[in-house]
Design goal:
With about 180 residues, the protein is mainly α. The chain has nine helices and two strands, in the order αααααβααβαα. It has helices at about 5-15, 25-40, 45-65, 75-85, 90-105, 115-125, 130-140, 150-165, 175-180; strands at about 115, 150. The protein is globular.
């Protein structure tokens, strides 16, 4: 069973996925995030179709899991994660790695294997996080290079740590950002 620290981070993650802030994760959250993401990026019809497919696939595989498209309460979400975590921690870690690689590959719209501040802000806005100052501070916590880019894997690794690490002594940029109000 996951320790209380990790479960607290899963609760934060759950709340971040509740895009419409209705207390449940549902297909409405998928639709809102993918539509907002497409609009903010001004995607053409083909790109929009790809985003819709990729967002739905990601949500179904990693969030809804065996309950594809069904409404999920926080308790159900935590139970699914905890069951997978306690059954096989190595497999869970691998799954979270695939989860965040997949998600950030979708967010990396120009496929340059790095995330710009604009890509980051659009992604967070699409997920209902609209405090630009806090989102910008979160992005800058990744120490962008001189071109203002963060390697995709730096962000992926921070989210893997956020969803898998039980070690409270390790600095956690994702947890810190959410605790600051992102």
């Amino acid at each position: 069973m996951a320790n209380a620290f990790l479960v607290s981070k899963w609760k934060i993650w759950y709340n971040s996925l509740d895009v419409n802030h209705d207390g449940m994760i549902s297909f409405a959250d998928v639709e809102e995030s993918r539509n907002k993401f497409s609009e903010l990026h001004n995607l053409d019809a083909k790109q929009k179709k790809d985003v819709i497919e990729n967002f739905e696939k990601w949500w179904n595989q990693y969030i809804f899991r065996k309950r594809k498209g069904e409404e999920i309460s926080e308790k159900e979400f935590l139970d699914m994660l905890n069951n997978d975590f306690k059954t096989d921690k190595a497999k869970f870690l691998s799954e979270m790695e695939a989860c965040f690689k997949t998600l950030f590959n979708v967010i990396d719209t120009n496929q340059d294997r790095s995330i710009s501040e604009d890509e980051f802000l659009i992604a967070f806005k699409a997920y209902g996080h609209e405090n630009v100052a806090l989102d910008t501070k979160f992005f800058k916590s990744y120490n962008p290079d001189k071109d203002g880019l963060v390697p995709l894997m730096n962000i992926v690794n921070s989210w893997i740590q956020f969803t898998t690490s039980e070690d409270e002594s390790k600095p956690d940029v994702v947890k810190a950002a959410f605790e600051s109000g992102v």
